[in-house]
Amino acid sequence: KTMEGNLSDLRSELKDPQQLRFLYAGFADKDANPQSWQKKMDFWTNLILQTSTLLNKFTFNLNDLKSRFKYDGLSPMGLPTVVEEMQRTGAAMQEQTFFADAPGWGGWLFSKFVKEPLQNWWGSESAGGAEDTTFVLTSSVKTMAAKIYEEHKNNTYTLEELAQKTGVDVEAMRILIRWLEKEGKAASFEVPSLDKTGVKLSSEPVSEVDTGIVHLRATLKKLQSQLQSMDDQMKKCTSEALRFQQQKKTREALLTLKQKKRLSEVYYKRMTSADTLTQILDKIEDAQTNQAILQAFELGSTALKNLNEKVTPEHAETVMDQVIESLADQSEIDDIISSKTAEISPVDMSELEEELAALSQDNDADNLEKMLANLTVVDTPPHATDVPSPTKPKQVAQPS
Q1: Which DSSP category does 124 fall into?
Q2: What is the average pLDDT value for the chain, to the nearest integer?
Q3: How far is 183 from 177, CA to CA, in rounded Å?
Q4: In the predicted model, what is the mean pLDDT of residues 199-227?
Q5: Are 217 and 281 in contact (CB under 8 A)?
Q6: Structure confidence by residue, pLDDT tens digits, 226-274
Q7: How confident is the model at residue 55 (pLDDT cuts 50, 70, 90)?
Q8: Maximal C-alpha separation, the chain
Q9: pLDDT (tens digit per residue) in 294-319
Q10: Cβ contact 187:205 at 8 Å
């Protein structure tokens, strides 16, 4: 469902004036009507989560929510209570709490996400927090972070590059990476020479290789940007040269083409460099994949070796001999039981044949009785009129 769809649902809820007053009014005492209170709380909590997901936002403050859900000039009066309940249930937490003691982010992160929010919040906290206090939607963060990890695990990026790949803004990506750090699935590190933050999506510690990858990616991105700019300049030179030629300004046209040629030479050199960097990054990725495969083989080999230490060929042969011996014993026991059973209860086959013949006769007699029982006998004699009259013999004339 789209953002507009969610807001359309909200507007349909608000067409009823009574429902509008109920949803946009403050929360009454919960003890007075617990079911009504919870229904209203669930409505606003779900709407906050759904619209935040559609907006790719994992943080909010009261001012954001009031603006988001403003209807006909009115903002929900119960939002502070909703935020307070979300904090109590763990659905949301204050940003400075979320980032507290975050490893690897340095003084800038502490200042931006901890010190400054604390200064804004200190002394002005109300039931749901100050209106500009930022909260993190923990359930949405957890879901999105897990998705990003599965799609990009065992890779290293700059923070900006990863944000661009996943379609979220940089600040939201910082929150997602912080969550993965808490779960031990990511590590962030500063690259002072580039003034960039690197991100490694792995449980492995950051190494020099990861720093090198970040440098390579940043250099490649810079080269690609330069190539795009130079390509635009060359197109512009071509266009200007044509315009000068149409204006009969041959000298200016030639100078413009000369400038284009110089740009073209630099362009192809840098394009070759960019291609080389791309190949190096591809080889690094292949090497990392090969390393992961070898590690899997190594683990499998170690596990198999440990199992084989417990099950030696000699032990396996002994066990199989015992199985064969046990089966032979079982077969011998079965034969003995069968023969002894025959001796205990001898059966005369002639008696059995006579019994079978008697059963067959009994069965034939039973079938005959059934057939006779199914016959219908008519006891009524035929009427006299129905009896044909005897035919008199004809007189034969005597010869005279």
Answers
A1: -
A2: 78
A3: 10
A4: 88
A5: yes
A6: 999 999 999 999 999 999 889 988 898 999 999 999 999 999 999 999 9
A7: confident
A8: 167
A9: 767 777 777 777 777 777 777 778 88
A10: yes
The pTM of this model reads 0.55
**In the chain, where do the E strands start and end?**
59-60, 92-94, 135-137, 156-158, 187-191, 196-200
Output the six-digit token pair for 350. 């002639």
What are 309's two structure tokens? 């230490």
Residue with tokens 């190539």: 227
CB 155 within 8 A of CB 117: no
Residues 6+ apart with CB under 8 A from 224: 274
CB of 128 closer than 8 Å to CB of 63: no
Torsional sign, CA 130, 179, 85, 79: positive
394 secondary structure, DSSP code: P
Tell how far CA 104 is from the center of its chain. 29
Question: For 184, left (φ over 0), alpha (ψ -120 to 50), or beta?
Answer: left
CB 137 within 8 A of CB 49: yes
Torsion sign (Cα): 116, 120, 122, 127? negative
Q: Hey, what are 266's tokens?
A: 């630099």
DSSP string, 180-192: HHHTTS-EEEEET
Cα–Cα dist 83/61, whole Å: 9
CA 267 to CA 216: how far, in whole Å? 19
